[in-house]
Prior knowledge:
Blueprint (H helix, E strand, L loop, with lengths): L2 H20 L15 E12 L3 E12 L2 H21 L7 E15 L2 E17 L5 H11 L3 E8 L2 H30 L3 E15 L1 E6 L4 E4 L21 E13 L1
Antiparallel strand pairs: 1-9, 2-4, 2-5, 3-4, 5-7, 6-9, 7-8
Amino acid sequence: MNRQTRWISIFLFIGLMIGLASAGFWDSESPVIQQKNMITVSGYGTVDTYPDEVIVRLAVVTQADDAKSASDENIKKMDAVLTALDELGIPEDDVVTSGYRVQPRYNWREDEEKLIGFQVSNSLVITLENIDNVTDVIDAALEAGANEINDVTFTVSEEREAELRDKAIEDAVKKAKADAESAAKAMDINIIGPVEISTTGSRFSPYRMHMDYDEGQMMKMETSIPMPMAAGAGPQIQPGDVTVSAEVIVVYEFK
């Protein structure tokens, strides 16, 4: 690099430094970004509604000395159950096999096990769009050969559940806004508006029951309890509301 080029480079560097300094690049008193004043609140919304669907879980359980005999008897009874459901007008797509199990039965005596036969269990899940038919379905299934009612769940369709979820979120947002306004009033501040909102998820709570023929009624339960049934007296079924809930977290700016 010759002497003339060197001096040109020096002058350019000096000019750049002067320009940066004049623009306040190193000015210790340059403006500082102000953080926003924010308040965070949460809201919990719930919507209760009457069910429009019911799911019945039942089974045919048979026992015999050998697995083949137990299976043949089970097939015979399950065919009768399916025929009874068809005669009630239940669509085939709404009747689904949920389980089939063959297992040995033992009798324990003096720390020794003795094979005494086999048990076959064939389970169905039946979805009814008309909840008024649930008693007829249960009675018909029991008379045809079903001997286990594991669970009766009152619920809503997927489309209805989505609508209820939207309403629950709307309710949660309104409650979060009300809490923010109450806090602002107590602190003598003014809410400017929301700057962030998030949902922590939603929850759907169907109305579950299990059969109790000893009492001749349906008992509300949180979990299904399999129990043998005997045909005869129809249960008095009073479905309860199903609940959809949602929670939101909202961040508001205030001044």
